Amino acid sequence: MVDHVSLIGGGFSNCYLISQENSLIIVDVGSSEEVKNILRFIDKFPPKESSSILIMSTHFHVDHVAGISYLLDKLHGAEVAFHKKVRGFMNGKERIGIPPVLAWFGNLPPLYFQLNRHVPSILEIRKDNKVGIPLPFLRRMVSVRYEVRHWLGDGDSLPGAPDWKVISTPGHTTDSLCLWHEKEKILISGDTILNMHGNGELNRFCCDYSEIKKSFTDLKASLNVRSIYPGHGSPIRFGNDLLSNVAVLK
Questions:
Q1: How far apart are CA 6 and CA 3, in angstroms?
Q2: In terms of pLDDT, which residue wins out, 125 or 91?
Q3: Helix (H) or strand (E) holding 78
Q4: Is residue 172 part of a domain?
Q5: For residue 228, what are the β-bridge partners?
Q6: Does residue 64 sit within a domain?
Q7: Residues 6+ away with beta carbon under 8 Å from 68
Q8: CA distance 38 to 36
Q9: Which of 4, 27, 67, 99 could bridge 16 with an S-S bond, Cβ 3.0-4.6 Å?
C-alpha cells in the first residue's frame, strides 16, 4: 500500500497525516485549531478500528506541540512519540536551546510575516499547551499532562509504520528530526527545511546554523528526495533530487 501524506492546515505549523492500512501517524500538532481540522479529516476518512494512532513531533517547540493534549482528549487510544532528547528537557537534565540574538532579529521576522497565521485567538491559546517556548524565562515550561510512550532516536522506525525512519537533524534545535520513507523518497523535514520561496530553504532561525548545515549536508549526500513536506510553507512534490535545489546560506 502506498502511504498517503495529507497536509492539515489551520495551526501554527504544518501538520501531516500519514495514512496506512493499519496505522495513522499525526506529525506536528501545532494548535487546538489544527486539532479541529485533524478530527474533521478523520471523520471523513476514518481509520480501521484496529489501527494504531501515533502522534509524532519533529521537535519540541510550542508551534509544533501545543495541540497534543487537546488532540488526546478527543482521540482516545493515540500514543505520543518524541525524540530521545526531549526526555532530557522534561526531566530537567537538559535545557531547550535558545537561538542567538541576531537570529531573533535578523532571521525570524522575515519568516514570521510570511506565515499564514500570526496572532492566535484567546480561546485557542486557552486550549493549547504552553510548552517548548525557546525564551530564557519560559524554556523551563516543559511539563505535559500526557504520557510519552515512545522515545525515538536516529535510525529508529516509527511504531506501527516500519517504512518511516527517524533521521536526527540537529541545528534548529538539538532534538530536531526528519522522517524519511525510502521506498517513496518522501522527507518530512520539520523546521530543518522550510519552503517559503518555492524550492525550499534551510532554516536560518537556528540554535546553531553550522550544525544545521552539517545535518543538511548529510541528508543531501545520502538521500534522493522526491517529495519534501516542510514544517512551514508549501510541500514540494514529485521532483527528483529535490535537496539539490534547497537554498543554503553560505
A1: 10
A2: 91
A3: none
A4: yes
A5: 187, 236
A6: yes
A7: 29, 55, 57, 80, 129, 144, 146
A8: 5
A9: 27
Q: What is the 3-state secondary structure (H, E, C) of 97-111?
A: CCCCHHHHHHCHHHH
Identify the three-state secondary structure at position 99.
coil
Q: What would the grid cell of residue 17 be?
A: 497525516
> Which three cell numbers mark 61?
517547540
Q: Average of pLDDT values for 108-115?
A: 70
Residues 240, 227: Cα–Cα separation, whole Å: 8
* Terminal-residue alpha carbon distance, the chain: 41
- Dihedral-angle region of residue 40 (phi above 0 means left; psi in -120 to 50 means alpha; beta otherwise): alpha
In which domain, by residue range, is 17 found? 4-245
DSSP 207: S
CATH number at residue 31: 3.60.15.10
At 212 the pLDDT is: 98
Total count of residues recorded for the chain: 250
The closest of 179, 185, 175 to 166, measured between CA atoms, is: 179
pLDDT of residue 1: 46
Residue 250 lies in a domain: no
247 in Cβ contact with 202 (< 8 Å): yes
Number of structural domains in the chain: 1
